[in-house]
Batch of 4 targets.
Target 1
Amino acid sequence: MFEVVIGLEVHVQLNTNSKLFCSCATSFGEEPNTNVCPTCLGLPGALPVLNKEAVHKAIMLGTALKSEINQKSIFNRKNYFYPDLPSGYQISQFEVPIVGLGQLVIDFPDGSQKTIGVTRAHLENDAGKNIHAGPVSHVDLNRAGTPLLEIVSEPDMRTAEEALLYLKKLHSIVRYLGISDANMQEGSFRCDVNVSIRPKGDTNLYTRCEIKNMNSFKFIEKAIAYEVNRHIEAWEDGIHSTEIVQETRLFNPDSGETRSMRGKEDAADYRYFPDPDLRPVIITEEMMEKYSQIPELPDEKKARFVKDYHIKDYDASVITSQLEMAHFFEEMLEEGISGKNAVTWLTVELQGRLSDSITNSPVDAKKLATIVKRIEDNTISGKAAKEVLDYLMENDASVDDVIDKLGLKQVSDDGALFAIIDEILANNPEKVAEYKAGKEKLLAFFVGQTMKASKGSANPQKVNELLKQRLA
Ligand code: ADP
Ligand code: ZN
Ligand code: MG
């Protein structure tokens, strides 16, 4: 039996306005090679100046992960040649990163938890992009110099599920902190997945492969499954030590396979040395004080929701996993509805009807809450409320107007209901006699008939009450 060992390196693009060492804009999707200057083009003589905001955001992340923050950290040059790296080196941190050892807690669906060690997080600048177009290749350097925070985990994860829980939690923390848009499609949150296996019980670490640049949870899961399989087969065939070499691999979403991209460089290959153009980063007491004041994190929000709104633990984690959803939920509760109803109408009814993110929902929090409120004050039935929501998904109108327009208001008015009830009772004299003789089950029959006669508009509770009165 084998055990899987996974360690993750996540690259988070920080949402600073300008690049890490120059004042060029970091905006995405601009005309190629327009957001560039001598510094991010790596021209000789141009000097880097560190962006303070990136440092502040690193401190915030370190605080969220309960990490040691190094008072003094160093920028190093990591030397390698690639067309999208005009200077011939990346400015990164090596021996002394800004953020040291920390941790991240993941939650399993059964309520159990596991703590994953976070080795470090360091600042570095991103490379540009190579665009391959048939026989020619283009280089776009707009992204070159964009600030990245690389967050490196310990090899603490044992399954693809754990890896995904770690990534989703980290993604959510980064969004809560507001330090990155963490847009995976645009590559602002991407990761390298390191995978190895070992016989169960063995505590050694064996040769790992690194699957580079993954930006989809689904593909990460598939890539891990493929890689684990490959390692196990090699082990069982007795060729693990020759077949599995430390290397960088790429995942192909079409085939679901990984393939070798290049042999893995060792640190020595990069000839790291302190960047002589940059002084050490010193974090003062005042900076620590100021930037360790971070917003409420997903776990805290979850605990608060459970306590204040009396919702289930699991529901609270679903809602707080996404910041937009948590905001939406809290906005609904401002309308004074019950937490339980808010959960159902948000996570089941609304989400079930949305194909896109909640941010683009045609029905906003206030409207959805108003629908719930109309159920709670007996204006409409739950069934009618679904019709109102269906209508509002397609049309812009107020909840009360839609209730009127679709004629969904429940009749609770005694006079109107008695009129219907009396007619039903008059039409069924034998049943009334049977009821009075003790066959109380017949009440359901009368309720059904009344509801039918009212075309579903009667308030069932009220009907029950009035029928009992009449039959008494
Ligand atoms: P590099 O930048 O060379 O990939 P790092 O030390 O930055 O090296 O990252 C190594 C990553 O690989 C870490 O996340 C670590 O937990 C993980 N890792 C190290 N050894 C193993 C192993 N044997 N199996 C799986 N993951 C590993
Ligand atoms: Zn620049
Ligand atoms: Mg790596």
Target 2
Amino acid sequence: MKEVVVKCPATVANLVCGFDILGMALKEPYDIMKLKLINEPKVIITNKDDYNLPTEAEKNVAGVVLLSIMEKLGDNIGFEVEIEKHIKPGSGLGSSAASAAGAAVAANYLLENRFTKDELVQFAMNGEKLASGVKHADNITPCITGGVTLIRSIHPLDIVPLNSPSLFVTVVHPQIEVKTSDARQILRKEVLLKDAIKQWGNIAGLVAGFEKGDTDLIGRSLEDVIIEPVRSILIPGFDEIKTRSKEAGALGGGISGSGPSIFMLSTDEATAKSVELIMQEVFQRLGIDYKTYVTSIAQEGVSEISTK
Ligand code: ADP
């Protein structure tokens, strides 16, 4: 195999109460990446979209990931990469993770699957470090494996894939900028014990809910008493969307990643579509441009579309 084209899904990290430890893959939106092996130790990147992301390997998350793979291999090989991005950078929908995970998985296909899933996550985390300054795996892991994942620890890496019921996901991406660094900076460094108890009860409930396929338990556990109250002030319309979506029958939801996207889970498509109408109505009224998706949890992560 000399060339591979892969589909790289968007991901929702944090999953409300699971800050930095839970994430899930979405069927839509997704990026497309084409990778080719070349006999020179360099990475050549071409963008097939209008986002003007850097093409220097050291400044593009896909490039950084591929350079780390080349360093490990030590052979005289390199990669030609085409990125067709549909997940807007900075949306909170795992745009950088899609490129990082896509590069790692596609390179592995070309290298006859010599690396394990854990090794691919390690390579891909180098890309997340470039994008956000810290290594984190809550977008990368579900992007690679699909479904819902728990990252129990990154030092050492301990990934726990969770069962996920077929739920619908409504996403709204208001076209405002929330810098990941700002969203991290405003967080309090200390938490009250009573809040911590509530939070770990919710995380345990959410994990149990996924494992048992108990959607009521999932809904009850989608509560974040630590991060969301602080971060949601950066997202106009957040409280109204959450309250009205739940009234319309959604299980619950919250901020996707560090925002500004908001996601809501529903058990059926009709509810997911009424949630979309609520999101559209709120952002129209606020005069903020937006994009919505009604999609579902992707059981498959980065996947091959074609090979040559
Ligand atoms: P998201 O929250 O959507 O994942 P991030 O804030 O994690 O977005 O990452 C976006 C940042 O990473 C932007 O500053 C962008 O310029 C940079 N970046 C570099 N290469 C890529 C890439 N291939 N895909 C997406 N973002 C990239």
Target 3
Amino acid sequence: MSGKSSASRTVLLTGFAPFDGDAVNPSGQAARALHGRRIAGHRVTARELPVAFGDSLKALRAAILETRPAVVVCVGLAASRRAISLERIAVNLDDARIPDNAGRQPIDVPVVRAGPAAYFSTLPVKAIRAAIEATGMPAEVSQSAGTYVCNHVFYGLMHALRRRPRVRAGFVHVPPAVAAGAAGSEGLPLAAIVDALRITIATTLSTGEDVRVSAGAID
Ligand code: PCA
């Protein structure tokens, strides 16, 4: 391909600012660590999103327009999880347990009025899980990104790209970052989280169809 139709070589990687009283957010730190890195012939552009309903999506949409990415991976912290969580489903629901950083706390409202109930990730989540596990790190496919700002961003991302199926996109929740060498019960070292995100991007760029062990859909 050439000229205007040439495929984008940018991977947009977003993390979040700290929230809920924390001083740091490993999702933003890990994204920043990969900014400018080349992965499988693509260049990573990292952005930090505010932990705010509405504003987070405005920032994400502006970054998509600006960078015209081939792949978008949004990342957030899930404080209670201990594995890299490849999110499969974004649901059209904001239901905030705590106020966001702007003081807003939407309860039981859709992310997008009259939008579909849910979108699926278009990242190859099973192949990514296998690739991360092969390095000895814990990884899982998750069926819920919650109903807070992370799910809001995930749903808004998939909605924004609904007519651009060739731009692969999805969401990854990461556990808290712990001191190097302390992997285990409390979380993962930041370097391991960074490596898991690098593997997520590399696997997406090298995988066409996701791993499937059986087919059984009902028409
Ligand atoms: N985690 C929150 C929002 C920002 C973040 O890093 C969530 O899981 O919704």
Target 4
Amino acid sequence: MKIICLNFKMNLLKKDIRTYLNQIENKVKRENTIFFPNCLHINDFYQKGYLVGSQDISFQEFGSITGDTSIHQLKELGISYTIIGHSERRKYFDDDKYVSKKIKLALENNVKTILCIGENIKENQAKSSSFLQEQIDDALKNNLDSITKENLIIAYEPVWAIGSGTIPDNNYLEDTIFFIKDFIKKNYCLDLKVLYGGSVNKDNIESLEKIKNLDGYLIGSESLKPDKILELVQIIQ
Ligand code: 13P
């Protein structure tokens, strides 16, 4: 069964969440769909019995970090998943520095992790393997005691495909996903699942579904529209 992660980023208000929840009621499978709303709305999804995650966690458990949110506070709201290393966090909040520490904290606290990796520039496709290797090594090398194939999932999100309406072609995606899985298997003896993220929508999902080694999707803007997401989920299921 494919894993479907819906990342709302910094969107929607409380009233939108109420409408959203009404519209999707009994229409999505709870076991493979994970919602990543703004942290203010996590508990609304949890109360309805959905799997829910945070879009990030603080690198510290508690303390003087103004504006940050502790994994323990997020767990109180109902998360069982978190995204770590999203390119927007890496870009705006210098998260390259904290990815390894955040993964450690999440896994030690039994919060499953979606680790985002991806090259920055389309022209860098040729060089992307060394870029991806560096991001994988940085995230995994100090956390091998806690990582299992159940608690860590990789999301391959080429930064240039996020929000751009442009996605890599299927051959490139299939090769890159193979590369990521193979690199992790050979170097870390782990069989990790790999999702794709970046401009996934109801119009390109049928084509993406032809990619054999893909385990699911991390979807941004399309996830904000319940009617579109229901159509998309229907195609995947
Ligand atoms: P879009 O689907 O809007 O391109 O966003 C992808 C993403 O960043 C999901 O984490």
